[in-house]
Backbone:
């Protein structure tokens, strides 16, 4: 993966991590209920789930690329169209809200880890997103396993940092999201629209 392509992927990953999603909301909720240290179990479970989804998406794409490079071109255009559609949905989404609970139930680390993993691994939208998203950055001339390692590590790092920040600042972030959440959604949605429109046109 070329450095400029990786930078675009990094910016896209940050935008995805910041946009409203089930794992970010779960980290925010668990941070408010259980504290940031305990929510690390949730975040680690989500990271494992994301690696599994990225692997499933990427190596399935790799099989198509090996059969014909025309598939990569098609996937890039379909992926760009999907990102534009997703950006419009995020733009129109209502602000994220998290209901406060006075007496949170005790939760063990394994339970939180499992919740984070299942939230990432069983969300069909996640698989659809990565299947559309990853072809925009794949270089068919380079090693697919190496690109998988770079892409998975980059996304997991941005997702981990974002979710931990949400968990650590849960009580402060919640009212902020309720106040400026719609503008925040529009910024994330606009980013997806720009990426989806521009990346398929790159050589």
Residues:
């Amino acid at each position: 993966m070329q450095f400029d392509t990786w930078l675009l992927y990094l910016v896209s990953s940050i935008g995805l991590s910041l946009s409203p999603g089930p794992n970010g909301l779960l980290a925010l909720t668990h941070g408010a209920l259980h504290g940031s240290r305990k929510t690390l179990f949730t975040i680690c479970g989500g990271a494992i789930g994301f690696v599994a989804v990225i692997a499933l998406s990427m190596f399935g794409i790799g099989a198509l690329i090996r059969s014909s490079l025309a598939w990569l071109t098609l996937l890039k255009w379909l992926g760009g169209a999907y990102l534009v559609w997703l950006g419009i949905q995020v733009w129109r989404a209502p602000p994220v809200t998290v209901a406060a609970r006075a007496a949170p139930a005790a939760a063990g680390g394994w339970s939180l880890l499992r919740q984070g993993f299942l939230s990432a691994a069983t969300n069909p939208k996640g698989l659809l997103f990565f299947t559309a998203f990853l072809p925009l950055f794949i270089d068919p001339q380079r090693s697919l396993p190496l690109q998988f390692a770079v892409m998975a590590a980059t996304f997991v790092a941005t997702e981990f940092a974002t979710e931990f920040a949400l968990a650590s600042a849960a009580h402060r972030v919640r009212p902020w999201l309720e106040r400026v959440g719609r503008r925040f959604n529009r910024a994330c949605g606009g980013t997806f629209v720009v990426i989806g429109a521009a990346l398929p046109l790159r050589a």
User: Anything to note?
Assistant: The chain is about 80% helix and 0% strand.
